[in-house]
C-alpha cells in the first residue's frame, strides 16, 4: 500500500481544499471537519488501492526484478492482494461520495485512471508518465471539488501535479538499471516550472513571503538526490531521486496551502513530513 506515499496523497487533499478557499477562514464546524476527513479517507483508499493493483499486475515481472515485494516473496497471494485493492478503491469512492457528487465522480475517475496505468499505461513511454500524473492531478481536483464552484476558477491547477508526477514517473523507469542524464535534466526543468507556478500564484494572492520557506524545503528534498543522480545516473541514485520527489510532495502541498490558506494550516501539512520519512524507512516508496 506504500504507507509513506499515502501520507502525500492526504496532503494533495489539503492543498486542494485550501486552493478552493475552504481553509481561508479556518474550520469552524463539525460538518466541515468531517468533509475534510472523508476526503482524506478517499485519498487513502484510492492511492492504496492503486498501488496494490500495481503489484498485482506486476507480479510476474517483480519475481525477476523485485523478488522482495509481497506477492513474489509469498507474503500474500495475488488473489488476496486483488481483494485488498478492490476494497480500498471502493472505500475511497464511497468516502468521496459522502462529501458530494463532484468528489465522488472524480474519485471514480481516479480509480479508473489508476487501473488503466497499472495494467497498460506504465508500458507506454509517452502516455505512461502523463497517465500517472493524471492520477495525482485528479486527487488535487478532488480536494478542490469540496467547493464545486471553485473548479472553473482553479481546476487548471491540477495540471501542476500532472507535470510534476509525469517527471518523477519518467525517471522512475530507470531506477532498476540506471538511466541517462538527459532524462534527469528534463525532470529538473519540470520541477522548475512547478515551483514557478506556485510562486506566481502566491504572489497573486499576496502570500509570497509565506510560501518561500516551504518552497525552499521542497527544493531541498527534491533537488539534492536529483543532482546526485545527474552526476552519477545509476539505479540506486535514481531510486533515491524518485523517493525524494514523492516525499517532496508534502512540502509542495504545504506551499500550496500557504498560498491560499491562513496559518497554521501550511505548517500542519508540513508536519506530516516526519511521519512520511518514518514510514519510508519501514515500507517501500517506489
UniProtKB/TrEMBL annotation:
A Pfam family: UbiA
A GO cellular-component term linked to this record: membrane
Transmembrane segments: 7-27, 33-54, 75-96, 154-172, 184-205, 211-230, 242-261, 267-284
Family matches, as CDD domains: PT_UbiA_1 (cd13964)
Species name: Chitinophaga lutea
Keywords recorded for this protein, A-Z: Cell membrane, Membrane, Transferase, Transmembrane, Transmembrane helix
Compartments reported by the entry: Membrane
Entry membrane topology: Multi-pass membrane protein
NCBIfam families (UniProt xref): prenyl_rel_EboC
Protein name as annotated: Polyprenyltransferase
Coiled coil segments of this chain: none
GO molecular function, one term: transferase activity, transferring alkyl or aryl (other than methyl) groups
Top-level taxon: Bacteria
Amino acid at each position: 500500500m506504500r504507507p509513506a506515499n499515502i501520507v502525500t496523497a492526504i496532503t494533495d487533499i489539503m492543498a486542494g481544499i485550501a486552493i478552493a478557499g475552504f481553509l481561508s477562514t479556518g474550520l469552524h464546524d463539525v460538518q466541515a471537519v468531517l468533509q475534510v476527513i472523508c476526503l482524506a479517507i478517499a485519498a487513502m483508499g484510492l492511492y492504496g488501492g492503486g498501488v496494490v493493483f500495481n503489484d498485482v499486475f506486476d507480479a510476474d515481472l517483480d519475481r525477476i526484478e523485485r523478488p522482495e515485494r509481497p506477492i513474489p516473496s509469498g507474503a500474500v497471494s495475488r488473489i488476496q492482494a486483488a481483494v485488498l485493492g478492490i476494497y480500498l478503491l471502493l472505500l475511497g469512492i464511497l468516502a468521496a461520495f459522502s462529501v458530494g457528487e463532484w468528489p465522488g465522480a472524480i474519485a471514480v475517475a481516479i480509480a479508473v485512471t489508476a487501473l488503466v496505468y497499472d495494467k497498460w499505461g506504465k508500458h507506454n513511454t509517452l502516455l505512461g508518465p502523463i497517465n500517472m500524473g493524471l492520477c495525482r492531478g485528479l486527487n488535487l481536483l478532488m480536494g478542490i471539488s469540496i467547493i464545486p464552484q471553485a473548479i472553473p476558477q482553479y481546476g487548471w491547477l491540477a495540471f501542476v501535479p500532472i507535470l510534476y508526477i509525469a517527471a518523477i514517473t519518467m525517471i522512475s523507469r530507470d531506477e532498476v538499471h540506471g538511466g541517462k542524464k538527459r532524462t534527469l535534466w528534463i525532470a529538473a526543468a519540470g520541477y522548475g516550472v512547478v515551483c514557478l507556478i506556485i510562486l506566481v500564484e502566491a504572489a497573486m494572492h499576496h502570500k509570497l513571503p509565506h510560501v518561500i520557506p516551504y518552497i525552499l524545503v521542497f527544493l531541498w528534498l527534491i533537488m539534492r538526490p536529483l543532482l546526485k543522480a545527474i552526476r552519477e545516473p545509476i539505479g540506486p541514485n535514481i531510486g533515491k531521486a524518485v523517493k525524494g520527489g514523492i516525499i517532496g510532495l508534502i512540502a509542495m502541498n504545504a506551499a500550496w496551502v500557504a498560498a491560499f490558506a491562513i496559518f497554521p494550516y501550511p505548517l500542519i501539512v508540513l508536519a506530516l513530513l516526519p511521519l512520511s520519512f518514518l514510514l519510508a524507512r519501514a515500507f517501500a516508496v517506489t
